[in-house]
Amino acid sequence: MIDEIPHFTAWNIVAHTKRGKYYYWTWLEDLKSGDVYIIDIPGIKAILNHEYASYHFKFKVVYLDCPLHKRIINMLKRGEKVIDIIKRLYIDYKDFKPIKNIKHTRIKL
């Protein structure tokens, strides 16, 4: 996680998002070389709509369902500020709400 996307490689990014103050992205090479890749709902939609990626790769969506209290405890252990935790929980709520509209496997943690 970094605070900006490197512009010299932006052409090769198939999906990207900003969560809080950090950017996350997936390069085409990541998809070519990896069996598993973790991404959020907007990223899943971007990849499924990406002309090259959607044609050349098969995707299986797995949703890791972690209880709210465990997520809060993990963020506190990482030293997150309470205001940042609240912002992250709100972002997650908005971003993962549409999971019901995407075929997926749910794993409860």
Structure report:
- With 109 residues, the chain is an alpha+beta fold.
- The chain has helices spanning 28-33, 41-49, 51-56, 68-77, 82-96; strands at 13-19, 22-27, 62-65, 105-108.
- A two-stranded antiparallel sheet has the order 1-2. It has a two-stranded parallel sheet with strand order 3-4.
- β1 (13-19) and β2 (22-27) form a beta hairpin.
- It is globular.
Short note summarizing the structure:
The protein is α+β, with helices and mostly antiparallel strands and 109 residues long. Helices cover 42% and strands 19% of the residues.
Based on Cα principal axes, name the global outline. Answer: globular
What is the rounded distance between the termini?
24 Å
Report the total helices. Answer: 5
Largest sheet entry:
2 strands, antiparallel
Q: Regions with pLDDT < 50 over 5+ consecutive residues?
A: none
In sequence order, what are the helices and strands, one letter per element? EEHHHEHHE
- Biggest sheet, strands in spatial order? 1-2
> How many β-strand stretches?
4
Q: What portion of residues belong to β-strands?
A: 15-25%
Mean pLDDT level: 82
Based on CA atoms alone, the radius of gyration comes out at: 15 Å
**Which structural class is indicated by helix and strand composition?**
alpha+beta
Proportion in helices: 40-55%
